[in-house]
Amino acid sequence: MSSVNLGSWVQTCSMFNHADRSRPPSYSMFNPPWIRSRSISLLSPRTSRSIPSYISASTVLTKDDEIQNETPATFDFKAYMLQKGNSVNQALDQSVSLKEPQKVHEAMRYSLLAGGKRVRPVLCIAACELVGGDESKAMPAACGVEMIHTMSLIHDDLPCMDNDDLRRGKPTNHKVFGEDVAVLAGDALLALAFEHIASATVGVAPARIIRAIGELARSIGSEGLVAGQVVDIGSTGLSDVGLEQLEFIHVHKTAALLEGSVVLGAILGGGADEEVEKLRKFARCIGLLFQVVDDILDVTMSSQELGKTAGKDLVADKVTYPKLLGVQKSRELAEQLNKEAKDQLSGFDPEKAAPLIALANYIAYRQN
């Protein structure tokens, strides 16, 4: 286990101060306590390793051959994502049928089936297969996490939240169905996610299904996704938000559901506790990595390239990694997070770990 000393330009807290899930502090939204600053500690506060000087920040997000170089030569990442993505899309289509009341089901399907990279469900399936399970055991949970992710996007885009008009290259849900139906469609997807996991998971011990449902609930509740969203709202427009607070927001708002996706797959696939925790740490790293890259893309790509409104964080005066660190240092942080994530997979079968290694690289080097 190691930590990363990025120098005096990084001031933030450790994501991994504790062996299990980190808990958000209790504080007033109007008077948040910016705790003392310290360098990023990705996995453990006990040791420190500086980023080597030979790492070129300019190469981050531009290595087209990185995925192939670090995974077995026989592994075809594009084919894997296409096959798993198609399986997920078919399962999602079957999970939400058009029925009465038709308008809310249309709204649910509109956002759920709008495309997207399906990173979270594929992570869930890949983690399940890594520990010896098969796709069928993880598919209901994979659909469940995508339903919840879609809910979070619908609600995120609302005028009372991020007030966005474009998502996945299409008008946002409330622009098509109205704010009232959009809220209810998100609520319905949230409820359906848990119902689907509970009723559609087969071939898995009931205790593991219950454990998985509890894990997912924690990842999106007041100590997970909701916590990050609330602190994000309270931080908008403030001038004294530091990297410590930014990390808290994204470890909860973004990384928590990615972590839940991986951990659910490991649990349902029959993983031992030690394997589940290693995959949890892997997922926390790629979860924060996902947000760092997202922040970089928001200021370096166009709306057409992203499929959503570019530069909206800057307009909304939100704190981001490029705003605090600059784009180059943010890219350097992304590379180190990617390395730390893949280090957690070193004890697994390389062939079975190949999809997760490739997914980590995909998150690091994606262009939208």
UniProtKB/TrEMBL annotation:
<dbReference type="GO" id="GO:0008299">
    <property type="term" value="P:isoprenoid biosynthetic process"/>
</dbReference>
<protein>
    <recommendedName>
        <fullName>Geranylgeranyl diphosphate synthase</fullName>
    </recommendedName>
</protein>
<dbReference type="GO" id="GO:0046872">
    <property type="term" value="F:metal ion binding"/>
</dbReference>
<keyword id="KW-0460">Magnesium</keyword>
<keyword id="KW-0479">Metal-binding</keyword>
<dbReference type="GO" id="GO:0004311">
    <property type="term" value="F:geranylgeranyl diphosphate synthase activity"/>
</dbReference>
<dbReference type="GO" id="GO:0005737">
    <property type="term" value="C:cytoplasm"/>
</dbReference>
<keyword id="KW-0414">Isoprene biosynthesis</keyword>
<dbReference type="InterPro" id="IPR008949">
    <property type="entry name" value="Isoprenoid_synthase_dom_sf"/>
</dbReference>
<dbReference type="Pfam" id="PF00348">
    <property type="entry name" value="polyprenyl_synt"/>
</dbReference>
<dbReference type="InterPro" id="IPR000092">
    <property type="entry name" value="Polyprenyl_synt"/>
</dbReference>
<dbReference type="InterPro" id="IPR053378">
    <property type="entry name" value="Prenyl_diphosphate_synthase"/>
</dbReference>
<comment type="pathway">
    <text>Isoprenoid biosynthesis.</text>
</comment>
<comment type="similarity">
    <text>Belongs to the FPP/GGPP synthase family.</text>
</comment>
<keyword id="KW-0808">Transferase</keyword>
<dbReference type="InterPro" id="IPR033749">
    <property type="entry name" value="Polyprenyl_synt_CS"/>
</dbReference>
